[in-house]
Design brief:
Helix content is about 35%, strand content about 20%. The termini are far apart. A 5-stranded parallel sheet has the order 3-2-1-4-5, with helices on both faces. The chain is α/β, with parallel strands linked by helices and about 160 residues long. α2 links the parallel β2 and β3. The protein has one domain: Rossmann fold. It binds 4'-phosphopantetheine. The site of 4'-phosphopantetheine has 9 residues, from β1 and α4.
Length: about 160
Amino acid sequence: MKRVAIYPGSFDPVTNGHIDILERGLKLFDKIIVAILLNPGKDPLFTVEERIHMLKISLKKFDTIEIDTFSGLLVDYAAKKKSHAILRGMRAVSDFEYEFQLALMNRRLNREIQTVFLMTGLRWIFTSSSIIKEAARFGGNINGMVPPVVNHKLKEKFGFINSK
Ligand code: PNS
């Protein structure tokens, strides 16, 4: 039986921290489905299509990663995909409280699905999509924190380079 994990999130945009977790996850799972939440309460910077595009380019070397979208409950999506594992990255202690709540609620909603936390690489401990967007918005150098395609798209979005 194939071990399939769901790696859910907003991915607005994907960062090297996400890719680090995926690389670690692929050592444990045969396949990982990157699942972008549609219509989150947050107001995303990138459209779903843009986020899918950046994920596809950034993850093209991995042939056991699938990119998909979902709406509604994560556990229902995981069950639909016949997966018993939700993969989440843990950075600093500040992530813990939210992740703990999410994992316990998901467990309550479906006891067959386990949340697996992987510790991010030390160099990504303080990076997040939000902080990267904040830096990029004001022209900060975010080289090496995001895949090149994301770096380019952020510069385009914030008007530092012209879009084609
Ligand atoms: O990267 P994020 O934004 O922290 O990801 C949050 C995400 C998508 C994992 C979470 O918001 C989610 O699973 N939303 C779907 C609705 C749901 O099932 N919520 C948890 C139980 S109420």
